[in-house]
Known about the structure:
Chain A is an alpha/beta fold and 185 residues long.
Amino acid sequence: MAERINLTAPLTDDVIKTLKAGDMVFISGTIYTGRDSAHKKMVELLEKGEPMPFDFTGQVIYYAGPCPAKPGRPIGSVGPTTSLRMDAYSPKLIRKGLKSMIGKGFRNKEVMDAMVECGGVYFAAIGGAAALMAKCVQTAEVIAFEEFGTEAVRKLTVKDLPVVVAIDSKGNDMYKIGMEKFAKN
Amino acid sequence: MREINVKDITELVEKLCIDACCKLGDDVFAAFKKFKASEQSELGKSILSTLEENAHIAKDNMEPACQDTGMTVVFVDLPQSVQIVGGHIEDAINEGVRRGYEKGFLRKSVVKDPINRVNTKDNTPAIIHYEISRGDKLRISVMPKGFGSENMSQLKMLKPSDGIEGVKNFVIKTVSEAGANPCPPVIIGVGIGGTMDKAASLAKMSLMRPIGSVNPDPQLAALEAELLEKINKLGIGPAGFGGTTTAMAVHVDTYATHIAGLPVAVNVGCHAYRLAAADL
Lengths: 185, 280
């Protein structure tokens, strides 16, 4: 089984290059949530040449829409959502400097091409393990698109968020590798 | 005629929404344990342990096991001998959903209109299925259904000549195409027969059976076992990272159909399989 790798976000290009598909990684530091509505909006702003509500260059975006926080807690349950719905938008953001994404499930060829071209990494968090992942969040603050509710962009401080490198910067795909290893006819 | 007040229905639905989202059933805990023992991938085993741990955290702290607390599917078995008083049952159920999602700190994921997509902010309306039952208890079952798995479901109107092999191939194809997206290990509900809508509804209903329960019809029980074995040879594995546990159960149910038809629906359920039920 892969060794435990501890990283601090945002991740540098040098760190991203060392990550290999299948690595188990624990992320601490600052990441941002953003899913369907935020992606749509960010790409609209990009295309109009308007300013971004936050600078995503070099940052980690986590595809997640949390449950409401209970009193005294920074956030409610917060697991990953299916990444394929972001595929229409991700290549544009990657080419504008987004480096790391956390979600779950396959990515299409356009996203993988953009990642290889720009040196990006796609992590998969464990879908459904949302109560456990909420415990990794120390602070959460809505920093953009508050009107989107759960889909607003939140700045999170996380400690040891467990993820797996699903697609590395060379384009190796853990989903494909893992499935081929265990598929039986 | 026994009377049931809508107030009691609202209170029950509120409680069931919260319980379903936070407390996974004993059958889910048992399935995690069973498949952890047989899983061949080390990473897969560790993911199943994480899911077990997550389910314990959720239950102990009454927090949602998954942030996608779903669109609320409610099944009502309404005895013919019961009269609902004090208001309309549909309003009462939706009020229960509204209160449950607010009080339970559950995520509100429902948009009023599929085109304009404005959130209703209270997770209503629920999807409600009514059955007029022959029993004397009003049974309410609440299944918060996340859309990571719902989106991976498929329906096909096969030809009778496609036969049982056609049915099997369609089920396998659906799970294979879903891959890592629906949060495997999944629970697969298969509805065969009826009309288009009936097949879909059979598939959904079959998800309500306890995980790993066997269809009383030996032919369908054998089909369930065969499909489970084939699905677990796909290699998708826990969280899709490869392994021998892609599904924890396959439930098949059938209904009479037309001489010209063979409808098949496959409803995919994620591992955070949530269901709570009680009687009034």
